[in-house]
Structures
1.
Amino acid sequence: MRRSLRPSLRRDLLLWLLLPLLLLVPLTAALIYGLALRPALDGLDRALTDTAVALAQIVDVKDGQATLPLSEQTARALQADLVDETLFAVGDSTGRLLGGNAALLTLSTSLQAGQWRFFDSVLDGKPVRVAAHAIHCGSVPSQVCSILVAETLGKHHAAQRAVLLASLLGAVALALPMALMAMVAVSRGMRPLRLAATELASRTPSQLEAIDTRAVPHEVVTFVDALNDLFGRLRDVAAAQRAFVADAAHQLRTPLAVLRVEAAQALDSPHPPALRPTLERLHSAAERGARLAQQLLLLARAEATAIDPTQPRQLVDLSQLVTEAADRWLQPSIEADQDLGFELAPAWVEGNPLLLAELLGNLIHNAIEHAGAKSRITIRTGMQNDNAQLIVEDDGCGIAADEQASVWQRFRRARSAKGTGSGLGLAIVKDIAQLHGASATLATGEDGHGLHVRVSFPASSAAAPANE
Amino acid sequence: MHVLIVEDDSPLAASIATAMQARGWRADVSDRGEPVPASLLQDAYDALVLDIGLPGIDGLETLRRVREQGSLLPVLMLTARDEIDDRVRGLECGADDYLVKPFAIRELLARLSALVRRQDQRRSETLILSALRFDAAARRAHVNEQPITLSARECIVLQYLMLKTSHIVTRDQLAGLVPGWAAGTSENALELLISRLRAKIEPGGVRLRTVRGLGYLLEPAVPE
């Protein structure tokens, strides 16, 4: 119901094209009928005149008296017809019947010699077509004989039916292709709109480039221009957001650095034992604040990157990225009494190396933070089919199955989580993964404990460098 | 050790200077980049800590001018802006290392020490880590001043590990050190060489760790 209330260009166009066509079919048929019937009937009338002319030849004048010397055979020949009953009557100027049907002669009207008249009438209760003709028959010009030839309407009706059928067929034969063409034309006309809609629907939030208006029909250009204008404004917003993030980073990071340095310094300097718990809390809060700020800025940056198509993408080997990051994570894992290991094979993805490094860092940080002492953490890279894979797995305490979906949300932490994390790490992983069209999944480790995080990247359109 | 800190945020500059002084280092502070090249000529600094976002000429321009006058001083950049990260990350600007704010002071001091030590070793040709000493020219190693015997391959590997102290050295990097090794050397042969080397040098207060699946790391047994 509601659907039919919505205005539809296609429906309007079809309505305005097909409705007139529907009215035009009977009108056209009527016109053709009217135009074609007359000649057909005229032809039939001419057949009657032939008989009348033949009779006129037979009329003879003897001693000033008109006669019709008609043999029985000639009379039958003149009346011979396959379809209709033909009658004739010949009378002189006084109205005396010279030959033929007396009843027919009563229908004669006064005509000048040489004149013709055709009319419809009824004879013996049958509708007939009558041709009346007048000829001279005597020495005096006023002596005029009437010749009448009548015919029942069988051929007339047949002609009418044939012409009606022909005109109806003609009109329909014209209307059907026109209706089809109208539908095709409307459909074709709507296609650029449909294509534009499909293109827009398939865009990711980061695709904000203007639609090319060269291929867009004249009538739709204003609409597309408005859309492009909107895209432009969205790009500006993205740029403004990036600038804001950069400024915020600068403003926030320096005081946080002071806080971190001073807190650590205070803890290392000689101090009254009573102050130690306070200093430790201060130090831990500074560390937490620094990490939280770092993560928030990163999230904002990832989002700004997502809607900013100007961000460059390049080919990155995940195994290389892990190798470069390994240095940074080895020491924390040793301090946490963990065994950090690697199984690296080349895995090429197209993306932003800075953000990919952050994704990796967050996964390793999480593993070191939550797997616990004596756990074994392994980082794997490689290709599975055409998809680059990054896997971080540990044999620590893991995350309960019912929580594995919700920990991807911002500020959500697992019940088993130790320490003072912000709950942003996995949200950042998810954001950066999405930005690269990758899927990030979380599962319980193979033998039922620990955690197995897998980031699977889409097949890269660019080939990996051949010599790697 | 004598360090010049170039940082326009005076609380941060003071914090870093205080932390250095607590370690017995000397630290001077400048809040602008312009006078830095002249300062380096006047005083014998061991290292430079240089913030990128400075009023006037920025850190990158300051560094360019420093390098222009021929200084090889170890430089550690401080950065707060993501945009500049990418240039600094590749260290194409002539810096030796970089840290993103907010950093941990322990990390800043450790990185700076490593930079200065590397600079010293570059000059002296002698690599020293705890009680392990390696003379690169003579290809001889001492543990607690006692000479130890090393095969030619062990020498090459030890020198490389000492140059990269506290950094992971991958198996591929080690295998690539000696011509003909990369293709022919099995992982077991490398593992065997490392375990022999480990037995020889670990009495010298160093630890040669195996990083599972990746490579090795040489570090002081007791953190500096």
2.
Amino acid sequence: MNLTTALARFLIFPGLLFAVPTAWFFLWVERKAVARMQGRIGPPFMQPVYDFVKLLGKDTPPRTGVAGLLMKMWPLLAVSAAAGAVGLLPVLPSSGGFQGDLILLLALLELPSACIIAAGFSSRSIFGEIGSAREAVLSVAYNVVFLLAIVSIAASQHTFRLEALAQLPASPLRWLGVAAILVCLPAKLHLNPFSLPNAEQEIYSGPMTEYAGPELAMWELSHGLEWVAATGLVATLAAPHVMIVWLAILLFVALSFFVVLLLSTLAAATARLAIDTTVRFYWQCTLIFAVLAISSALFMGLRS
Amino acid sequence: MNILTMLWQNLLGGSRTLLFPERPKVSKGYRGLVRFDPALCSGCAICKMRCTARAIDFKSGKGTFTWSYDPGQCTFCGRCVEGCKTHALSQDAECPPVYLTIGALKKSYTVARKPAPKPAAEVPPVSASQAADPVPGGAQ
Amino acid sequence: MNPWNRLMCYCRRRSPWLFHMNSGSCNGCDIELIAALTPRYDAEQLGVRLEGSPRHADILCVTGPVTHNSVQAIKTVYGQVFAPKAVVAIGSCPATTNVFIDSRTLAGPLNKHIPVDVFVPGCPPRPDAIVLGVAKAAEILAERGVQKPAAAALAADAPAALLTAAPEAIPVSLASAAPAAAEPVAVASAAAPAPAAKEVQP
């Protein structure tokens, strides 16, 4: 892959030009699906765009000192990391050169949560501290399962390159891994029943309490891009490999949309769990499956 | 599985939302805006005395009185309607409208006092011999 | 109006984010406000979102006659909402203190302390009236956002100028709100009496 192809992937498809409208679309789908399932109408189609533009026009408080600089930096870092993660997704079959690395994709997927945690602490607000502490506990809990699932998929196919992973035929272990990833997605995307960090009734927006205006617009955008990246990861792992470009794109979008609907149904059907129940769920229930996945991957690796 | 059935039924059955700016009809007994009928008012000011929120104001003038009502101050309890002897006040099943400046909804009515009813024509004093007869009804 | 302003006006009207503040009300109006988010009235069809932090909101919805204890909190939270902003007084208590008109614990109607744009009368107002009030406030907000601050400062009364002024430009007469722009939200949202609120400085 040469520089132009890499730039095209990062900027056009599946990079920024595709990811940002898709992020807004997925945010709308989630709100509309939850509303319809609750018997309401829900927001109009362009609502996330209206929110974004309106936030760009609001004032921001003067931010001074190093803490102020950090506060301005975290949302930008979150947006860039999420956009980079979307750009790395192996949607199109590529030929040779730098093929996306799974470790890099995982690191970029983790950065937005890390930015939220850091943002809450650097906002010097007590609600930010509590929200960030909750996000940190949640992050440790689901990340163990998430990373073990992905690593087990990669280890079973003996490769950490994304294109190779996407091209190889699926083994039963891959479906186990995809299921484990799906279980971690509600926590990653702050959806019910694991929507603890932004519990408005309890901690006044948590880590985001002191943010306003364009910074908040960047946080909303990074949240939308996280949606695209996370659902896109599941879509690329679950999709069968096709060589026709437009079919691959269609399959990717359709599978991501299906995952969004699935997560919206879960969000509408459940209520928020407390931190101890959440952590217990991830450490007791799902860890078993992740351990099974990684041990079977290791056995397969040892055998061959 | 109950919740999933509910979600599915909501999806199929459509939303029960009232599309803005449609508003629901209020029921017949709803205690809404107080309506004043100047023709029936006798100017006793019992409504002002009974009003819990001091939304009703009553001022006497020469041969007239001014009755005013501020829906923004009113708590829609209905004590004024209950206390009005001549049924000049009634409560509509209608909500007060949204307004932008204080006192925009206040309404005043200046009503001329009705002339006092003339006393009936003089009845000649009843003599002892006629006391047994029943009194003619016209004197009432 | 240039195209950017026109776009901003269009988007501001369709995305009003609320922050709800109770200044001592009986909770009847608060319940009706939450009822406005339920399926039958669904304020979200207008893009309304009930936000957790005043810094995120455009419209401040206040219920309750303003008690002495809550005056400082109301002013601080008003200062924490960023321009352009609008205030909706829900119920007849913030407009006229309703039945509590002679109470010694009240600090008067709401527009003595912060400029109010829309009054939604009722005791409590119906949820559809609240949605109507919020929609009207969103329209006012959209128009206000594209006004030049200088023109607004020449307006008749001082409180109206607060609406488009930057948070730092709040006049000294409301000095309690002046440092509020940089204060964390924790200060106001605990409706503590005034001395305690001044102690918690960042």
